[in-house]
Every structure is written in structure tokens, then in C-alpha cells.
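Data's thin. Show one?
=====
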Amino acid sequence: LGPYKYRHHHYPNNITLRDVQKRRIFKKHHYERSKLQDIHYNDILPKEVRDKAMQKIYDMPFDSSIIRMHARCCVTGRPRGNYLDFRVSRFVFRAQADYNKVSGCQRAFWLHNTHLNP
């Protein structure tokens, strides 16, 4: 079938499921990959050692790289317009902020306590 097996899930769409699976693969391999990259970029080590490290990086899954992940809304699966601190899209953020369900955020209210002196 491929690296992504279909299963029933609770995610908003299949692209979000695929992103979650990419994150799992990244979490599993990122420490080893970062150490191998450190060896590869080290100028002091001999070229044979650096080439072996690069070959091990090539043998790792593509999804172990950090650039393969994309920030998506965890509620709707939307890929753009996300607040990275909260991992939700702007629509979900605004809807939750309207009812004071977002920690540390308050809706701007301009009708009271605004005194403009001309």
C-alpha cells in the first residue's frame, strides 16, 4: 500500500492524518538524524566518516526531516492562516476567543472606557 496505511481516524481529513503520521516518524528519528547531520557538517572529521554519516541519512525515511511537516489546524485541518502558539486556524481561534475559551486572550472591546477628547 505504501508508507501511509488507511485506517479509520478522528482527524478532519486524510491530509491531516498524513501530517500526524509524518510527525510520528519525525519524532522517532529526529535525534539520530540531527547527530548524523552534525557529523556530516563537521570539517575536522575525515571524509570517509562524513560520507558514512551522509549515507545513513540517505537510508532514513524522508519524513524524518523537519521540513516535511506542515503547520495545520488540529481542529479543521486547514493549512494556512494558523496561530502556531495555539495550533488552530484563525476561524477556530476567533470562535473560541469570543467565548473566552482561549487562555491568555481577550476580545477587544471598544465601546466602553474609550474616551476621545477632540
In short: Residues 48 and 111 are 70 Å apart (CA to CA). The chain has a mean pLDDT of 87. Helices lie at 14-41, 47-59, 90-98. DSSP finds three helices and two strands in the chain.
